[in-house]
Amino acid sequence: xxxxxxxxxxxxxxxxxxxxxxxxxxxxxxxxxxxxxxxxxxxxxxxxxxxxxxxxxxxxxxxxxxxxxxxxxxxxxxxxxxxxxxxxxxxxxxxxxxxxxxxxxxxxxxxxxxxxxxxxxxxxxxxxxxxxxxxxxxxxxxxxxxxxxxxxxxxxxxxxxxxxxxxxxxxxxxxxxxxxxxxxxxxxxxxxxxxxxxxxxxxxxxxxxxxxxxxxxxxxxxxxxxxxxxxxxxxxxxxxxxxxxxxxxxxxxxxxxxxxxxxxxxxxxxxxxxxxxxxxxxxxxxxxxxxxxxxxxxxxxxxxxxxxxxxxxxxxxxxxxxxxxxxxxxxxxxxxxxxxxxxxxxxxxxxxxxxxxxxxxxxxxxxxxxxxxxxxxxxxxxxxxxxxxxxxxxxxxxxxxxxxxxxxxxxxxxxxxxxxxxxxxxxxxxxxxxxxxxxxxxxxxxxxxxxxxxxxxxxxxxxxxxxxxxxxxxxxxxxxxxxxxxxxxxxxxxxxxxxxxxxxxxxxxxxxxxxxxxxxxxxxxxxxxxxxxxxxxxxxxxxxxxxxxxxxxxxxxxxxxxxxxxxxxxxxxxxxxxxxxxxxxxxxxxxxxxxxxxxxxxxxxxxxxxxxxxxxxxxxxxxxxxxxxxxxxxxxxxxxxxxxxxxxxxxxxxxxxxxxxxxxxxxxxxxxx
Length: 673
Prior knowledge:
single chain; eight-stranded mixed β-barrel; 26 strands; 673 residues; alpha+beta
């Protein structure tokens, strides 16, 4: 069998693309593949034909084809053409046609492709052939065209192709499809994909890099089309190409501007992210080394303009010299990243290298200090975002310790960072799906013994994370800005619950915790009032608890104070939470519209253990009273603590002695008790 027959692949899609009725039979004369045109001609479906286990085709449809002729075709290496032969339909109708039989091998099995070239279809084929010729002439005048045989050898090409590729007909004819492309892994992957599509009878289109006879690169928009040459009875492929080298060059220049730091020639952060993504996809192990110049702007101020311009260039040169063959990027003016497989001890040696090769300004060495972090992939972190966050956390830690070190974080710290990143991701989903829930912790008025206020507290039990405590959740939410979303969620739930209790005849106020970050939004007051209007909740039922850190910032920011005043005028009460743990200045107590002080539980916890704490807490209660503020003590866990706080003059107490945070239904049970 010839190489042509061995490599030629036939399927139903291919048969249906032919202009003639066609089918494939095996060496026993049984139908293997049955084309739609054959189905229309003979009146038998593919199911009808394939249901027969005897030589149905040979004995019925091709009964004039002798067994000797059949065996001869099967053993031949070439196609057999029979000018006039009779075939028979399902209705036993006789049809005279020309027959082309092509032997082939599929997975070791000997087969014959039968094509019946009916006279009326031959006329259409000639007509279509003329149309194709006209079309090809039009393409030749506009595009580069190359015709390949079924093995990928070049059969012919047009003048446009020769002009661009710098080949001559004598030299290029007989070359292979693969020799037109660069000799590298990327090109090999693309060309193999094109060839696979063509052999599966699929058209391929895309931008590809090619090479001229002299090895110079050029780019084309390539359309590769599988065809069948009726004259030679062979599979062929046509490549239609448009030169896009000019536009591709402009694109590369724009990409260079977009991805390269113009001052140093290093990658910028955008390009670094793409490179890291590619390395992660390939599962390549590496160290992500983040280097930051300490006190950079102070250095610039201390030295003249010349060092301002050369400091970064000189520093970049030293990175390039020390970390040879490593990928490098400039993140911002004084931060750099090196991607390297080098060991930790070698990376840390960069500090010694800088001391041995100082940067000079007017013959004086510039005292450069570097804070650096080493994060490994995949041992420490597994995404670009996580690598960056871990690096920033490391740099912060190094600078807090005095700087001028390159360190790696402990496994425990990386584990905590990974959990933090997962919390951020899961929290977004929880807020979107409203998976957070609200519990309420009651406050008891010491004079009446009744529950008058409940504090709304967010609780989150995630199916992946498990229980996430407020102490862990709130700082992350504040850092990411999701605290605003949580605040809106809590406000809406608090308003809805307060209104439910009011309609049930229960006189309960609901306190919610608010972050200063929420009040930095100048529309915060409006948002709160809009929520009250939306839910129909009276403003007098809502209290907003703020921290001393909030109060200190509000003291300096007039617009925050104005928003608080606006809400106070509508009837909302402000409570100063965690009193005693913050700042020494109490000026904000005069400026801000605070109605209640809530003494922090750390003082309550040690109340019975320390006489000093007792005096301090008594003093805080008296301070609040002197300013005509209500005073609440939180963290009360025993009757002894409650009794002592009552003697100090506290107005209300809150803590496990009364109740832990519970559901609205449990609050109602407590009210009954």
